[in-house]
Amino acid sequence: MSVTVKIPTQLRAATGGDAEVEVEGSTVGEVLDAVFDAHGGLRERITQDGDLRRFVNVYVSGEDIRFQQGLETQIDDGAEVTILPAVAGG
Amino acid sequence: MSIESLKCKECGTSFELGANYFCENCFGPLEVSYDLSELDATEAKRRIQAGSQGIWRYADFLPFEGRPGDPLEPGLTPLLRADRLAEALDLDAEVWIKNDAANPTHSFKDRVVAVAVAKARELGFETVACASTGNLANAVAAHAAAAGLDSYVFVPANLEEQKLLATGVYGTNLVGVRGNYDDVNRLCTQLAETRPWAFVNVNLRPYYAEGSKTLAYETAEQLGWELPDRVVCPIASGSLFTKLGRGFQEWLDLGLLSGEMPTFNGAQALGCSPVATAFAEGWDVCRPQKPDTIAKSLAIGDPADGPYAVEQARRSGGAIDSVTDEEIRAGIRLLAETTGIFTETAGGVTVGVLKKLAERGDVGDGERVVVYLTGEGLKTLDATRDTFQMHEIDPSLDSFEAEFRQEVAV
């Protein structure tokens, strides 16, 4: 499945400036692994001991994956995955 | 005190001062870091006491290169003894109410917005914006208008009408988003990447949040340069709660105050209680919730500072409790009937939790407790609807006496 992953501005140094990364995967976990394979510098920034860091939010087509199955959340072809800092608001 | 850098609260990495709010290494929130070494406590106290009648009297402790300015200066709101409330709760304690509805747009958000708007001007922004549950919307629209800046205010479209009206009146671009606050917040986080705007609680959040410290400073100053034993404070994102702690700690470190940090009690609505749940379960993260409560100003299901609020409550020996919508309505009435203060639903949450603490025996005899009321009852009128009845009579003595026969019989 082809999925578009949106990268926050501050992390684009690790993607060579790209705002979006196209990868293959059928779950959020697989998609993120594919992103990390392509851009090694992102893995440590986004995950810790295999889990998302506590201030990282991941959305599939606008819905927080914590309301779904987390990293196991299934992804449809053409879906959009967005990575955002969880430190805004209030 | 001089402003030094933005520092990640998670990993400690320092970043340059600018419109930046999260750590590119670990996504942790950035916080303003100051250099305390040059600040003399006696001089600082003198500058405060000779300062303006508002939050700029605490400018030494706020994140500016120069002297901040704001035409709509908030702060120095009343701190009132609430003996009748204490009595009603059967408390043998000194209960104080910090009524922060007495600000220009009737909520504590004037503090954080005054700081954020002054910072936006210092950084050269021409447009300010925010994601809001209502009170922030009022404050951003008003302070932008006063400063002559453009503004965009994003709120859940189903907000209380009073809060929409009290925002639109200032001539802002009011955007009602079909979704809950967390949807609005996500949208604004994305917009902050593409628009050259100062989102007060996104890319300017490290500065904005510092404004909440002024509530701690004022409390201490109004108590005669002493600390309370306990504070009861509402929690939405957890920012106010944690910054109260930071404010007290800074003054302790500087020697402006002595003694122990207060016990911190947080208050949430049961219908949106991710931080209270994390506290109860012993988690160090908050599991997000879909809010369903009348306390819309606290309806943040994914609270940015939730983990730090939990840590602060634990460290201080306090707790984070939640109350039902029924308890919120009762809290509003209890406060009104014992203090003459009409608070919004968030205040009902806070008073409801104070009642819970009293019933549980958590508040010790002789303790000095400060209860933070962050908003105004007139903005959430629906919460009081049908909680009392009006006597309707004809304009005649007979009609009055028929209605009040029992009461006026002598």
Structure notes:
The complex is a heterodimer of chains A (90) and B (410). Chain A has 2 helices and 7 strands, in the order E-E-H-H-E-E-E-E-E. In chain A, strands 2-1-7-5-6 form a 5-stranded mixed sheet, with helices on one face. Chain A has a two-stranded antiparallel sheet with strand order 3-4. Chain A is globular and about 30 Å long. In chain A, 19% of the residues lie in helices and 30% in strands. Chain B starts with a strand and ends with a helix. The model of chain B has no long low-confidence stretch (mean pLDDT 96). Chain A binds chain B through residues 8-11, 13, 44-46, 48, 53-57, 59, 62, 64, 66-67, 82, 84-90, and chain B through 10, 20-22, 24-30, 131, 181-183, 185-186, 188-190, 192-193, 199, 201-202, 205, 236-239, 284-285, 287-288, 290, 300, 302-305, 307.
Task: Write the topology of this structure.
The complex is a heterodimer of chains A (90) and B (410).
Chain A: E1 2-6, E2 20-24, H1 28-38, H2 41-46, E3 47-48, E4 51-52, E5 56-60, E6 63-64, E7 80-85
Chain B: E1 2-8, E2 14-15, E3 30-35, H1 41-49, E4 79-81, H2 83-88, E5 94-99, H3 109-122, E6 127-131, H4 135-147, E7 150-156, H5 161-168, E8 173-177, H6 181-194, E9 198-199, H7 205-210, H8 213-222, E10 230-234, H9 239-254, E11 263-269, H10 274-281, H11 306-315, E12 319-323, H12 325-339, H13 345-360, E13 368-373, H14 397-403, H15 405-408
Parallel strand pairs in B: 5-13, 6-7, 6-9, 7-8, 10-11, 10-13, 11-12
Antiparallel strand pairs in B: 1-2, 1-3, 4-5
Helix pairs in contact in B: 3-4, 4-5, 8-9, 9-11, 10-11, 12-13
The radius of gyration computed from the alpha-carbon positions of chain B, rounded to a whole number of angstroms, is: 21 Å
Here the CATH topology of chain A equals Ubiquitin-like (UB roll)
End-to-end distance of chain B, in Å?
67 Å
Mean pLDDT figure of chain A: 93
Gross morphology of chain A is globular
Largest sheet report of chain A: 5 strands, mixed
Largest inter-chain contact set: A-B, 27 and 41 residues
Order of helices and strands of chain A: EEHHEEEEE
The CATH class designation of the largest domain in chain B is Alpha Beta
Instruction: Work out the radius of gyration of chain A.
Output: 12 Å
Q: What is the number of domains of chain A? A: 1
CATH superfamily of chain A: Beta-grasp domain
